[in-house]
Each structure stands twice: as structure tokens, then as C-alpha cells.
């Protein structure tokens, strides 16, 4: 089952916030193989406060959870979210398509659906970009980055047609240049840049072309008119009646690309740079379409409209269609394919004249070629792709049978005359770009071009306006209208200012009648001359197959015995066959054979005739044709007819003539046998050729299947490359985390051993070797095989206990060298909160134990000092009081604040400034000496005595240096 890594919607998202302004641009980024690096570069250089929203479409493996969101989040401070259904798009956020989903946008909200086409044939970038263009119009930005294939090309075309901006990665900087090259070669890219320069161009120039909340001042109408006049002078096409909003926006885009802000300056620039005039002309043309646009409309056309139009038409009827504004031909070929399907379904073959016109010569050239990118599989069903297209290396080409139905031509629908006597006229998504004045002029022209009962086919965004007297609706939703017989359209066309209509008014009805009469007389004369003077004739191809017969040819041709055939050589009567075959071969080399005299056996006798074979030039540029004519001549009595001889006067001559005739007959028989063998060989070759054609069709079908498999493998390869890029980024991240973890474990000075459920060593730190004798080769061994450096402790039992009941254990242990460690045994938990072993940690607490012992000793000494009954002082080397006994404070009536931290000779306001005592303490005690019973006679009025017996001892450190002096005193005033 495919994982769906949904994320909680952030608190600042529109689902949790009031709706924000929708007037901000949305950029759709398409990437495939090699696109991860390009995306990281793009978001690394783009600021976080552009006011734009970014939607990322990539080719992802449907069975693999994507980490693209996490990777991109590390490169930008904008919030990166995996898209969810109905998620509203807001500025300064990045949205990433989830795996195994198709995504579109509607009213600023993302729409997620399960893919409808098989894996390997999806075009998710085209799907989203086309919906983005339809939803956001000129606020759309389309960007195609590294990737193979052609996905994204049709999406950029839709964005360009909607007035948006299109960018493609510079192919030389892309790891895989297939997608950028396809879009660039198709001509749908306005900016070709390295990825790192795209943000700069977006922010500096492109955003100024997109309508913002506060629109910029409009360009002066006079400036636009000057530009259009300059364009009309140079190109010959007038765009003055096109919608000013569309025209202005596209002119602004060209001005921005050339760094020009003033319209008058741009008008002069057009005059000085003819190439810019051509570029502006192409910019103003809206050459955006696709196969079966509005599929339900074509279903209606196939099921309702065309069957009704063809129902009462005779077999020799010529069905006329005109597609106006065909762009690159997708609309035209869509109608042709539907018409072909209708004829096949009804088993009727009607001659079709399908005219397709557009203003641009470039788009007409593309339409004539009939070659389209592989992306059209999104719009064309697999059945139609198989039936009407031929798969080539660069895409799909329309089959010849469909292309031969269509005649493409460059035409200006505004000033050039229309095709007339039409059964169906399709003009979709053209009038939406025209001003209402021009629309009201075109609708009567369309009625004028259609036959009574003909059908007008418009787009859902167009209508016939107020011309309800000319058309009646057949389908209001998909805009099919049937003409109503009315002279109003003729009057409207003649009264309009259209050039072709104006010129037509100069012809009077009298002139028309005169011309018609002259044409009838000429036709009558031609027929009489043919009947009176033209010989019987037959038109054949270069193989002799009869295509047309004129006059009576029964005297020269007759049905051949055996299988029915229309080959003129097989049907030739006796005496004509050999000469006719030779004449056809000669005429096939573009050499006429004229007035060859020979005899033909008719009604049991030979009749002399003249045979002529002339090559014909075929007006339809098809295979060459031959005209074979037969002309009777009067026999000459003095001259034997060809094939006959005068009677010989002598027996020898007669015998010789008979021999020659026999030899000639034998030669003819051999020649006939040779001819029959050749025909048999030809038949065999034909059979072999048919078999080869059948094999070729099978191979072609196999090749198509292999092409499909190749496309699927290519798509899978792209997805694997994307997944590999993500995994490489994840590996780098894990390597960094592993380095951080190693340095952490090495520097916390805590011995750690990781064990699995079988007490096998997984990993250990350097400090753990002080407790267990471990080496790097011990990883994978059981801990029970390693002898610990502990005194009588068995931590394996504790580890088993923790593994069983999940209760951590903590105890203090000692090593053989009397170091103390705090040992902890805890469960090993995975990220999924699963128990997968135990962790032993050892913290060295030896210094801590010594500190505790020292603290205990100090506490004990302090307690002893406090319990001594005689006054007692403890001094440091500087003779400063460290502590004093309670009896000292009582006897000398001082407080601890007045004693501790002061020199001894300052105690009691100088009472202890006893002669020789200070000198004695400073000179004798540092030499590790002691004195006892040192009598001090001094007045101590505070306590009423003056004789004190002092005893002093020094406390020696481990290094042998005296640290403290203990001075005990005894009152001996009353003693002798």
C-alpha cells in the first residue's frame, strides 16, 4: 500500500486563518531526473518574502514515500508542505506533490486525485501547469527544470497563451536536458536561465509584469496605437480591434524583456529592429490549443451533430468543413479523426474537403507537418493514438490518411474572404480575443459561409451574441448552432467594411448572368467536339490498370477470361496486346507513342487501327497517368493489312512465307509463355510483398509496444534517479548525524555498551574499555565472553532482568584498581518505541567518593573542635583563623563573624597581639615543629585572667607541607 505522508496543516494556513488576498502570483515548478539539485539551488537563492507561492511537481515513485519536503525545508526558511486535497495556496509557502497523485488547482485550492493513466504514461507537470494557467491566467509563472522526456512543454504553452511567464533551465546546466530542450524548441519559453539566476530575474523584472494588488498606471492608448500602426505597416496585419487588455499586456511583456518603459520609445525600437517586430507579432498571436479541447463537446459532435449532418447526404456528396484560427492544427485533426470514426461506424465513404486556416505561417507549417510531442497522450486516448498516429522518435505524427483530408492555408479571417458552401464551421477560442465590434461583423460572415442547415461550432466562452435571427442553438452548453435561412447575413456582409465583401459589390447581376451564359456555351461546344472527333480512349496508370474509359472501346478491348481484371493489356483483343504492352512501357518513361499502325481482330477479321499512348500530367500530384487512344483507319487494297501478306506467286516464296509465319507464331507463343511466367512471378512477388507488409505491421506493432515499455522504463528510471537523489541527501544527513553522535559519545567520558536482545555487543565507547577488556573485533561477540574489571559484580544478570521487566537498574561498582563507577542498565528503544536490547553506561565517580570522604572528615573534625572544652583556634599558613571552638567564643566573648577570616593578632581588638607569639608561629611551625606549654602572661580583662598555657601543632598535607595550625589554650591564672 502506498504511504501518504500527510502533515498537519500549519496554524498560519488559510484553513485556520481568514482568507487572504488572492492577488499574488503562483509559480509552478516542474522537475524530474536530476531536478533535486536544481530545486535546492533555486530555493537557496530565493528570498522568503517574495509574496509568491511555489508549487512543485516532480516525477515520484508511487510506491515510495517521498522525503523531498524534508530535503527542501533545509534549503529555505519558507514553510515547505506536502500538498493535501483542498489545501488553499498562500504566499511565501512551498507545496510539494505527494507520491501516486495527480494534482490540479481550482480557485486557488489544490485538488488531489488518483492517477487515471498507467504508470509510465503520466504527464503530471503538464496536467498541473495547464490547470494553473486556466485558474490563475496572467498571474501564472511556469518553470521547467532538469528532466528527461517532454513533460511540461504543453503546460508552458498553456501558461504563455494565458499571458503568464515561462522559464526553462539553461540546458547546459541541467543534469538531464530533455524537458528544458523540448520546451525551448517548441518556442514556449520566454526566459532561458541557469537556476541560480532565476530568482533574481523573477524578482527584478518578471513580477512587475504580473498584476498586483495596486495596479501600475495604464499605458497611454496613443502609445499602443502607434505600436499597432507600426506593426500593421511592417507585417500587414491589423490588431486594432483585438481586446486592448490582452494586447497591452503582451506589449508590456515585450517591452520589459527589452528593458523599455515608454511606449513611444518602443515604437521607435520596432522601426529600427525588424526582428523585434516579428517577435511582437508572434507574441500577439494566441497559438494555444490541444487535441479534443473540451472532450464532451467532441462527444456531442460525434454522437449528435455529425450523424445528423451526414444522414441525408448522397454517396458522391462533398462534405465541406472550415476550421478558422486553427493554430498548430490540433483542433482540425481532432475534427478529422471524429469524422473518420463517424464514417467508419456508418460504413459510408464521403469525400471530405476540410480547410484549416490561421494567421501565422509558422503555426501552419507545424500543422502541415502533423508532428506533436509525446505529451499529447494526456489528451488523446490510446485507441486513437494507435489508429490515427505513427510513433516516431520525436513524438507522434498524424497518419497520412488524416493529413490528406485537410488543406492548410494562411488566412486573415478579418480581411480575407471566407470559404463558402460549408456544412460545418469551427471557430473556437478566437473571438474571445476580439472586441465586440469585430465579433458582430464575424457572426454574419460565418452565416454567409455556411449552407442552409450548416452548423457553427464555438467554444463555451463564445456565443452568437444578438444574431438570433441567423442561428438556432442545437446544444447551448457546447455552443453548436444551426443556420436559419436568411438574406440578412448577405446584406450585412455586403454592407460591412470587410475588404473582400466590398470588392464583391462591384459585380452586377448582369455580369454574373453573362459569365454564366458564356460558360454554358463553352461547355456545350466542348461536348459536341468530343463526341464528333475524339477517338475512343482509356486512362490507365503506368501498370495498365484502367481508371477511366471514354467512348466505345468494345472493338479493341474485351473482358479477359478467368478472374475479372481491368488491366488494359489483359483486355486487349488479338493483334493489339504485344504492341500495347510495348507502347505502355515506352510511355511510362515519359515518351509518347503516336499513331502506331497495327491490325486488331474484330468479328473474325483484322481491322487496321492507329494506337497512341500519351503520358498525362496529374493535377493532384499523384501517380503518373497514361492516355491510350484507338482510331480506326480505312484499309488500303494495294497494301496488305498489318499481319497479312499478299498471296505469293511462286511456290518457293509461298513456302518461305509459311515458314516465317510459323516461326513468327512460335515466337509469339514463346513470348506469351514468357509474359505469363512474368505475370505469375509478379503475382508471387505481390503475395510476398503482402506477407512482408503484414510482417512489417506486426513488427511495427511490436515496436510500438517496445516504445511504450521504453517510456515506462524511462519514467521509472527518472523516478529512481529522484529517489536516489533523495537517498543520497539522506545518507549525507545520516553521516553528519553519525559523526555528531561519535563525537558526542567520545567526549562525554561515559563508558557505554550497546547490547542486542541476545546480549551481543553492537557498539561501545572508548571509556567502556576501562570496565570490560574490549577491542574493535569484539563487536558481534556475546558480552558473557568478555571478562569485566569489576570486583564481584555480575551485570549480565541485571541486563537480563531489565530486558524482561523493562525496569532500569542503577548501582555503584568498583574496579580492580579501586576506581568507582555508577553503572546504569536501561532498555534500548527504537524510534518505533520497540525494545531491541539494553544499554550499559558507566560514569566514573571515584573523585566524587574522595570528595565525599573529605567532606565527612571535615565534618568530623569540625564536630570535634566544637566539642572541645578548652578554647581552640585553627589557623592557616597566613595565621588567619579558619575556625574556632565554641568555648573560645564563650571565654573571649567574641562572635564567629569577628573571628573567622581575621589574622590572630587582630582578634579582640589586638588582645592577641602578644609579643613573640606571632614570631613563634611564623618561624617554628613552618618547619614542622611544635611547641607545648608556652606560657603567655597577658591581660585578658574580658575573662579575668592573664596567664594562658598554649599548645600548638601543625597539620601536614600528603606532600609534607604544613597546611593548618591548631592552637589550644589553657587558663592557669589561679595556679602557681
Automatic annotation (TrEMBL):
Q: Note one Pfam family from the annotation.
A: CheR_N
Cite the CheB-type methylesterase domain residue spans from the record.
18-209
Q: What is its EC number?
A: 2.1.1.80
GO MF, any single term: methyltransferase activity
Q: Which residues form the CheR-type methyltransferase domain?
A: 231-480
Where is coiled-coil annotated? Answer: 657-747
> Would you tell me the protein name for this molecule?
protein-glutamate O-methyltransferase
What organism is listed for this UniProt entry? Candidatus Methylobacter oryzae
Amino acid at each position: 500500500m502506498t504511504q501518504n505522508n500527510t502533515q498537519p496543516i500549519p496554524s498560519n494556513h488559510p484553513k485556520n486563518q481568514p482568507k487572504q488576498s488572492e492577488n499574488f502570483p503562483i509559480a509552478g515548478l516542474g522537475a524530474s531526473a536530476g531536478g533535486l539539485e536544481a530545486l535546492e539551488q533555486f530555493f537557496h537563492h530565493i528570498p522568503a518574502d517574495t509574496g509568491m507561492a511555489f508549487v512543485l511537481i516532480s516525477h515520484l515513485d508511487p510506491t515510495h514515500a517521498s522525503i523531498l519536503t524534508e530535503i527542501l525545508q533545509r534549503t529555505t526558511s519558507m514553510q515547505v508542505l506536502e500538498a493535501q486535497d483542498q489545501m488553499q495556496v498562500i504566499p511565501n509557502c512551498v507545496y510539494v506533490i505527494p507520491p501516486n497523485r495527480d494534482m490540479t488547482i481550482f480557485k486557488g485550492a489544490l485538488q488531489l486525485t488518483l492517477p487515471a493513466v498507467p504508470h509510465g504514461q503520466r504527464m503530471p507537470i503538464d496536467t498541473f501547469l495547464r490547470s494553473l494557467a486556466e485558474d490563475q491566467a496572467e498571474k501564472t509563472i511556469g518553470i521547467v527544470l532538469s528532466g528527461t522526456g517532454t513533460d511540461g512543454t504543453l503546460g508552458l504553452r498553456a501558461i504563455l497563451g494565458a499571458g503568464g511567464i515561462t522559464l526553462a533551465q539553461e540546458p547546459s546546466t541541467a543534469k538531464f536536458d530533455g524537458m528544458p530542450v523540448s520546451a525551448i524548441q517548441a518556442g514556449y519559453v520566454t526566459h532561458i536561465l541557469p537556476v541560480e539566476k532565476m530568482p533574481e530575474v523573477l524578482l527584478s523584472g518578471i513580477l512587475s509584469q504580473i498584476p498586483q494588488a495596486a495596479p501600475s498606471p495604464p499605458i497611454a492608448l496613443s502609445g499602443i496605437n502607434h505600436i499597432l500602426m507600426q506593426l500593421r505597416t511592417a507585417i500587414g496585419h491589423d490588431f486594432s480591434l483585438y481586446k486592448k487588455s490582452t494586447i497591452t499586456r503582451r506589449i508590456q511583456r515585450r517591452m520589459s524583456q527589452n528593458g523599455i518603459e515608454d511606449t513611444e520609445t518602443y515604437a521607435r525600437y520596432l522601426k529600427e529592429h525588424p526582428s523585434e517586430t516579428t517577435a511582437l507579432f508572434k507574441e500577439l498571436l494566441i497559438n494555444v490549443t490541444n487535441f479534443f479541447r473540451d472532450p464532451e463537446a467532441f462527444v456531442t459532435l460525434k454522437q449528435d451533430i455529425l450523424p445528423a449532418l451526414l444522414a441525408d447526404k448522397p454517396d458522391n456528396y462533398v462534405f465541406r468543413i472550415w476550421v478558422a484560427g486553427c493554430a498548430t492544427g490540433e483542433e482540425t485533426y481532432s475534427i478529422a479523426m471524429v469524422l473518420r470514426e463517424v464514417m467508419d461506424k456508418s460504413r459510408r465513404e464521403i469525400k471530405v474537403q476540410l480547410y484549416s486556416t490561421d494567421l501565422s505561417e509558422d503555426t501552419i507549417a507545424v500543422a502541415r507537418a502533423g508532428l506533436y510531442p509525446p505529451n499529447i497522450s494526456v489528451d488523446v486516448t490510446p485507441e486513437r493514438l494507435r489508429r490515427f498516429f505513427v510513433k516516431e522518435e520525436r513524438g507522434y505524427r498524424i497518419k497520412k490518411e488524416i493529413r490528406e483530408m485537410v488543406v492548410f492555408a494562411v488566412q486573415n479571417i478579418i480581411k480575407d474572404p471566407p470559404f463558402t458552401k460549408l456544412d460545418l464551421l469551427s471557430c473556437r477560442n478566437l473571438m474571445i480575443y476580439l472586441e465586440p465590434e469585430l465579433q458582430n461583423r464575424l457572426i454574419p460572415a460565418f452565416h454567409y459561409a455556411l449552407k442552409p442547415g450548416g452548423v457553427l461550432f464555438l467554444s463555451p466562452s463564445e456565443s452568437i451574441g444578438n444574431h438570433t435571427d441567423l442561428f438556432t442553438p442545437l446544444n447551448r452548453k457546447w455552443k453548436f448552432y444551426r443556420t436559419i435561412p436568411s438574406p440578412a447575413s448577405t446584406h450585412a456582409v455586403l454592407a460591412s467594411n470587410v475588404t473582400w465583401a466590398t470588392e464583391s459589390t462591384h459585380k452586377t447581376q448582369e455580369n454574373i448572368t453573362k459569365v454564366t451564359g458564356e460558360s454554358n456555351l463553352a461547355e456545350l461546344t466542348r461536348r459536341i467536339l468530343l463526341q464528333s472527333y475524339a477517338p475512343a480512349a482509356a486512362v490507365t496508370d503506368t501498370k495498365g490498370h484502367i481508371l477511366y474509359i471514354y467512348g466505345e472501346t468494345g472493338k479493341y478491348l474485351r473482358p479477359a477470361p478467368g478472374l475479372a481484371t481491368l488491366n488494359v493489356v489483359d483486355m486487349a483483343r488479338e493483334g493489339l496486346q504485344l504492341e500495347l504492352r510495348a507502347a505502355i512501357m515506352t510511355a511510362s518513361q515519359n515518351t509518347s507513342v503516336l499513331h502506331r499502325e497495327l491490325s486488331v481482330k474484330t468479328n473474325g477479321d483484322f481491322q487496321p487501327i492507329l494506337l497512341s499512348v500519351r503520358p498525362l500530367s496529374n493535377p493532384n500530384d499523384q501517380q503518373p497517368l497514361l492516355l491510350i487512344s484507338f482510331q480506326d483507319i480505312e484499309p488500303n487494297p494495294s497494301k496488305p493489312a498489318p499481319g497479312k501478306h499478299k498471296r505469293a506467286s511462286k511456290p518457293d516464296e509461298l513456302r518461305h512465307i509459311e515458314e516465317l509465319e510459323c516461326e513468327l507464331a512460335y515466337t509469339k507463343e514463346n513470348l506469351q509463355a514468357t509474359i505469363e511466367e512474368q505475370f505469375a512471378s509478379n503475382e508471387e512477388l505481390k503475395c510476398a510483398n503482402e506477407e512482408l507488409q503484414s510482417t512489417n505491421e506486426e513488427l511495427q506493432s511490436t515496436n510500438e509496444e517496445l516504445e511504450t515499455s521504453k517510456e515506462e522504463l524511462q519514467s521509472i528510471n527518472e523516478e529512481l534517479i529522484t529517489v536516489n537523489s533523495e537517498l543520497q541527501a539522506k545518507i549525507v544527513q545520516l553521516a553528519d548525524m553519525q559523526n555528531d553522535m561519535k563525537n558526542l559519545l567520545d567526549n562525554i567520558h561515559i563508558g557505554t555498551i550497546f547490547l542486542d536482545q541476545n546480549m551481543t555487543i553492537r557498539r561501545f565507547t572508548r571509556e567502556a574499555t576501562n570496565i570490560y577488556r574490549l577491542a574493535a573485533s569484539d563487536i558481534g561477540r556475546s558480552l558473557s565472553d568478555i571478562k569485566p574489571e569489576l570486583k564481584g559484580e555480575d551485570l549480565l544478570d541485571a541486563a537480563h532482568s531489565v530486558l524482561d521487566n523493562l525496569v532500569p537498574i542503577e548501582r555503584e561498582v568498583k574496579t580492580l584498581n579501586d576506581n568507582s563507577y555508577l553503572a546504569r542498565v536501561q532498555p534500548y528503544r527504537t524510534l518505533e518505541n520497540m525494545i531491541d536490547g539494553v544499554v550499559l553506561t558507566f560514569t566514573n565517580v571515584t573523585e566524587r567518593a574522595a570528595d565525599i570522604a573529605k567532606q565527612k572528615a571535615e565534618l568530623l573534625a569540625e564536630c570535634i573542635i566544637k566539642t572541645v572544652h578548652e578554647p581552640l583556634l585553627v589557623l592557616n599558613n597566613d595565621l588567619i583563623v579558619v575556625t574556632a571552638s565554641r568555648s573560645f567564643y564563650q571565654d573571649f566573648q567574641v562572635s564567629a563573624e569577628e573571628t573567622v577570616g581575621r589574622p590572630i593578632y587582630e582578634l579582640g581588638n589586638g588582645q592577641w597581639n602578644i609579643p613573640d607569639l606571632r614570631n613563634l608561629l611564623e618561624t617554628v611551625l613552618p618547619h614542622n615543629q611544635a611547641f607545648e606549654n608556652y606560657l603567655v602572661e597577658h591581660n585578658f580583662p574580658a575573662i579575668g585572667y592573664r596567664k594562658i598555657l598554649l599548645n600548638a601543632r601543625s597539620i601536614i598535607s600528603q606532600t609534607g607541607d604544613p597546611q593548618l595550625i591548631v592552637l589550644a589554650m589553657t587558663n592557669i591564672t589561679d595556679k602557681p
